[in-house]
Description:
Structural class: alpha+beta
Radius of gyration: 26 Å
Largest sheet: 7 strands, antiparallel
CATH topology of the largest domain: FAD/NAD(P)-binding domain
CATH superfamily of the largest domain: FAD/NAD(P)-binding domain
Number of helices: 14
Distance between the termini: 34 Å
Amino acid sequence: MSVPSPETPPPGPAGPPGLNPKWDLIVIGAGPAGLLGATRAAELGLRVLLIEKNRKPGVKILMSGGTRCNLTQATDARGIVEAFGPQGPFLHSALARFSPADLVELIEAEGVPTKREPTGKIFPASDRALDVQQALLRRLHRSGATLQLGVAVQEIVFEEQHRAFLVATESGPVSAQRVLVTTGGLSYPGCGTTGDGYHWAERLGHTVTPRAPSLVPLRSDQAWVQALSGLTLPDAAITLEVDGDERGSGARPRRSVGRDRASDRGGLLFTHFGFSGPAPLNVSRTLTLASPTAQGRLICDFAPTYDRTALDGDFLKRIASDGRRGAGCLVDDLLPSRLGDAVLAQAGLVRHLKLAEIGRVRLRALVEAIKASPVPLSGALGYEKAEVTAGGVALAEVNSRTMESRCRAGLYFAGEILDLDGPIGGFNFQAAFSTAWLAAEALAAGVNGERAAR
């Protein structure tokens, strides 16, 4: 792809004296939001400069989904909104302009077939994130937008005298009357996401809410948990509870009773450090937003399809009808053998103990170990392992119908830099693409309207 220098933009009308901004729009950050936002704005007639400090665009796309790129979720706009909980209504306009179906259609139009997995996740049929990145780059190239790689933005300043933004970069200043910030958050710093956009937003008058790693694995020092490393449960119901003295005002968990609790149901993976998998990742923000050193517990239901009372009754019947059998038979039909042994041990039982010798107290303890096993947590892994960042530019300060700042005209935001973080499963990429598409269309409407009025 040809990458023209930002110092030699395509011809355009002269800008304000002194700055002479020849770009209609500068987009900062060539991640999913930046790539699509720059493309759409250029397709609608704007002279667009897209600046990326990495030497490769779309790095997070390449890393996402285990290098498979979970594009979106097989749902409609309402499903995306609901998944984001209290933050979700902010996305109504963006999803109305660019839905999950629209995203799939766009990618497939670039020659990349997609597939839906049983979880509802949408991937490229090739399982290659590179195919998605290349599809977006092909469309960017056709749009006429200029991509500048390997150039870090140092600061964004609004020049009141000229009513334009001056963007200072390593290779010199560039300017435009409109800027779209799509720099992402702090997650996966290996992608180059170092949180620069938060600083610029604050300097331009915005509030940035408390940030923390989200969709991040949880730590537990419990030996029996770590001994189960590698074991996966496809279906577990969990509730994360934060210790009382660690509760913070920043926590805004989805699907929870209060800000110190969050619940989810889905896959659970035991690891050498604690827990990973969809369910633990989805509740992790409640712990990380509470405090950088927050502790708590994970209440685990390892057999959520079984009612507690029915399970207790079934165990009693087995004891009455076949008291000679070992206690292991109670868990063999419910759980993998290693986990079965672990819950037996928590109830003070061993596999070979005869059913007739268990007793009512230990039987109840076994049911509790299966249905509500409390596991102390010692924290969470950091941004290096977090899929998204919780917190960001306050949504109340951004117009949800245009993505334009309410604090500074001409400044727009899209993607993870906003205070938007959804569950695992393609929801966050969809939010990034949709907010960028909406911002681009709003920007183009404004610029083209000004041109028509001249």
